[in-house]
Design brief:
Length: 458
C-alpha cells in the first residue's frame, strides 16, 4: 500500500486544533472548493466510530466514498477507514502533536491502494499524491485562518439564526460558525427539523415562527432568488423583487415584536445599489444609482432598517462578486476559461468589485461581533479591477489564454437586461466601513484569492 505523509504547523494549541476538528462543519470546511465534493450522509461522530459518506463528481461521473472513524485518542489521533468506495483500500490517520511554542503539528498519514491492486498504484501514485498535497496545503491554510478569526472573539458561544443557510454563502457561514463552537438555527421554508434547530418561515404567506427568535444573539438574512438564473422578464423580476423585499419585511416585523430581540440583524444587499458608475470611487456614503438593481437594493435596505431600535443594530452588506469555484459567478465561468475560450466582456473597462468567499464569511462574523458596525457596509475587497484585468488574472491562474472577447451585443443578445446589468455594467466599490471598523482582509488581491480558491497557492 502506498504511504503518503503531509505535515503542516498550525499556530494554535493542540486542544484548540483538535477541538475544531471534532465540531460539526469541520469536514465541510476542509473539502477543496475547486472540486465538486460534498458530504451526503453522516451517522454518529468521530469519537464513537461514526460514518460519513462523501460524494465526488467530475462531469458525468460520480463516486461515493464511505468512511468509518476509528482509533480515536482524545487530543492525539483519529482514523478514517474506507468502508466502501472507488479505491481498494484507504486508511487516513489524523495526528496531532504539540509544539513547545503553543503550536500544533498536524500530520496526515494515508495508506491507500488503487482499485486494480499494487500494479495500478504504481501508475496512479504520482497523480493521487500530487492532489493530496494540494488538498492538505489548502486545508492547513483554511484551518489556520478560521482559527485566527474565531480567536478574535473572546465572548461566549453565540446563537445565530440564518436564512439561506443551505445556499452558496449560507452553508459556508453555517460551517464556519459551528466549527467555532457557535449554534446555528437555519430558517427554512420546508417542514423544520427540530433536531437541527430549524425555524420555519414562509415569506410569501407572511408566516414565521417568531417566538423561536426570542433571545438569539444575531439573525443573518441571506435568502433571495438568484439574480443570474434566467433572463429578466417581468415575472422573473417580480420574483427577484418579492424574494428580497417581502422576506426582509417579514423578518423586520418579527424582530420588532420580540421581547428579547437579537442584538444584530445582518441583512444582504448588493453593490447594484450604486448602479453603473464607471471609474468613480464609491464608498458607503456615495449616492445610489439608477436601474432595477439600484431600486431593488434601496428598497431592500429600507426594509431591513425597520428592524433597528435601541439594542438592535442593523448591518446591510452590499456584496460584490463572491469568488469561489464551488458556486456563484466564478463557478459558472470556469468551464469556458478552462477550455481556453474565456475573454473580456464588452469593452472590458467596467469594474469588477469582488470579494473572496472566505473573506465574505469572515466579514459576516465580524458584523455580528462588532458593536460599532451598523448601516451599509460594502462587502468587497479593497482592490476592484476592470473586467479585462479580471479576465487576464483568471486566465493566468488557470494557465489558459484569454484571447476571445465577448462583444457587448452578444452578451445582450444572450442574456438581455440581466446580462447588461450584471456583466457589462460595473462599479468601483471600496470597503471603507469594513476597514474603518478594523476588519482585516485575508485576500486583498485578486491573484491571492484565486490561488487560494483554485488550490494553486504555493
Amino acid at each position: 500500500m502506498p504511504g503518503f505523509v503531509h505535515e503542516c504547523e498550525v499556530p494554535f494549541p493542540v486542544d484548540v486544533v483538535f477541538g475544531w476538528h471534532m465540531r460539526p462543519g469541520a469536514l465541510e470546511r476542509l473539502l477543496p472548493p475547486w472540486e465538486d465534493v460534498r458530504v451526503v450522509v453522516r451517522e454518529g461522530g468521530i469519537e464513537d466510530r461514526g460514518t460519513v459518506t462523501i460524494r465526488a463528481r467530475r462531469g458525468p461521473l460520480k463516486a461515493d466514498l464511505k468512511l468509518r472513524h476509528t482509533a480515536f485518542q482524545q487530543g492525539r489521533l483519529f482514523r478514517d477507514e474506507q468502508v466502501s468506495g472507488p479505491l481498494q483500500s484507504w486508511v487516513h490517520d489524523h495526528e496531532f502533536e504539540s509544539r513547545g511554542d503553543g503550536a500544533t503539528l498536524l500530520r496526515n498519514r494515508i495508506d491507500w491502494e488503487a482499485p486494480l491492486g499494487s500494479a495500478a498504484s504504481i501508475f496512479t501514485r504520482g497523480v493521487i499524491e500530487s492532489e493530496l498535497r494540494r488538498f492538505f496545503d489548502f486545508s492547513g491554510r483554511r484551518i489556520t485562518r478560521d482559527l485566527a478569526r474565531h480567536a478574535a472573539w473572546d465572548g461566549p458561544p453565540l446563537r445565530v439564526a440564518v436564512t439561506g443557510a443551505s445556499g452558496f454563502v449560507g452553508s459556508a457561514l453555517r460551517d464556519f460558525l459551528t466549527t467555532g463552537g457557535h449554534e446555528v438555527l437555519p430558517i427554512v421554508r420546508r417542514k423544520p427539523r427540530r433536531d437541527r434547530g430549524e425555524i420555519y418561515w414562509d415569506p410569501m404567506e407572511g408566516r414565521i415562527e417568531g417566538p423561536r427568535l426570542e433571545g438569539l444573539d444575531a439573525i443573518v438574512h441571506l435568502a433571495g432568488e438568484s439574480l443570474s438564473k434566467g433572463r429578466w422578464n417581468p415575472p422573473r423580476k417580480k420574483a427577484i423583487w418579492q424574494s428580497r423585499i417581502v422576506g426582509t419585511r417579514l423578518l423586520a416585523t418579527a424582530i420588532n415584536r420580540l421581547r428579547r430581540p437579537p442584538s444584530v440583524l445582518v441583512s444582504s444587499s448588493a453593490i447594484g445599489y450604486y448602479g453603473n458608475r464607471g471609474t468613480e470611487r464609491l464608498t458607503e456614503d456615495s449616492r445610489p444609482g439608477k436601474g432595477f438593481l439600484a431600486d431593488l437594493s434601496r428598497e431592500w435596505e429600507s426594509e431591513a432598517a425597520k428592524a433597528a431600535r435601541p439594542g438592535v443594530r442593523v448591518v446591510q452588506l452590499r456584496t460584490g462578486l463572491v469568488l469561489s469555484p464551488s458556486g456563484g459567478a466564478l463557478g459558472t465561468m470556469l468551464l469556458p476559461f478552462k477550455m481556453g475560450i474565456g475573454g473580456r466582456l464588452g469593452t472590458g473597462r467596467q469594474y469588477v468589485s469582488w470579494i473572496d468567499h472566505d473573506d465574505l464569511v469572515a466579514l459576516i462574523f465580524h458584523a455580528i461581533t462588532s458593536p460599532s458596525l451598523r448601516g451599509p457596509v460594502n462587502a468587497t475587497a479593497p482592490h476592484p479591477v476592470p473586467n479585462a484585468t479580471f479576465t487576464t488574472i483568471l486566465g493566468r491562474a488557470l494557465r489558459r489564454p484569454t484571447l476571445l472577447p465577448v462583444p457587448s451585443l452578444a452578451v445582450k443578445g444572450m442574456f438581455g437586461e440581466m446580462g447588461r446589468a450584471l456583466l457589462l455594467e460595473g462599479a468601483r466599490v471600496i470597503p471603507e466601513a469594513a476597514v474603518r471598523s478594523g476588519f482585516r482582509f485575508d485576500f486583498e488581491g485578486l491573484d491571492e484569492s484565486l490561488a487560494h480558491q483554485l488550490g494553486t497557492a504555493a
